[in-house]
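Reply to thread "Modeling small-molecule complexes from scratch"

Following up on the discussion above, here's a worked example others can learn from. I took a protein sequence and the SMILES for pyridoxal-5'-phosphate and predicted the complex. Inputs first:
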Amino acid sequence: MVTADEIRRNLDAVRENLAAAAAVSGRKPDEIALMGVTKFQPAESILAAFERGLGLFGENRIQERESKSAALAGIQAEWHMIGTLQRNKARRALAMFDCIQSVGDITLAETLERIIGENPEETGFATPYPVMVEVNVSGEYTKQGVAPEKCFALIDGIAVKCPRVEIRGLMTIGPLTDDEHKMRDSFRTLRELREEAKKRFDFSMRHLSMGMSADYAAAIMEGSTMIRVGTAIFGARDKRL
Ligand SMILES: *Cc1c(COP(=O)(O)O)cnc(C)c1O
């Protein structure tokens, strides 16, 4: 396991790289939020990062996040769901997370809408509840995200049918490649989709959630406002994912 000391050093290095990539593209580092992605990482690692000032985390699985709840009860942090979410787990996701970034179809959005509307006093779910629309820009991920050409239809559907759901931005996973041009093409496509969506819809679309350990510098150069970094902070995970 990676020690707390290594996590602190890794986190400092990622912050430096973030600032350097921001500087190269004439942006301010504080325009770019850093999320620590903690799937398959133990609660102790999360606490070490929290103590170093990290306040935003992402997990991919409901059950895994729930299993860490007790150990993390003492920390005040923001948690986002970034993995594929099945409708039958939507209620648990709403209870565990402050934002669901992985909304890729209208049926999931409608399920969220229905549950949020049930009994707000009792559930305490934020209304409107923040989500992001996940776009499968690279076309490589068969089960994740909406196709770029269907993205506006989905946003329109949410705008019309889901008044309790607020789209805060777009999210994507970059292509599996070392080719920096391909990375940047993908991230640029997401940025352009967001520009167009801002014109067409009433949502703020503040966030472009893009960039992971291998490609966050490229994502920042294309306008990312939130990078999601796992391995580069917490070390390698179990190979299952
Ligand atoms: C795992 C994961 C990340 C982080 O990946 P790293 O390569 O470890 O930085 C970011 N976003 C999503 C959606 C993920 O599933």
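What I'd highlight from this example: The domain at 4-234 is CATH 3.20.20.10 (TIM Barrel). The chain is about 45% helix and 15% strand. Questions welcome below.
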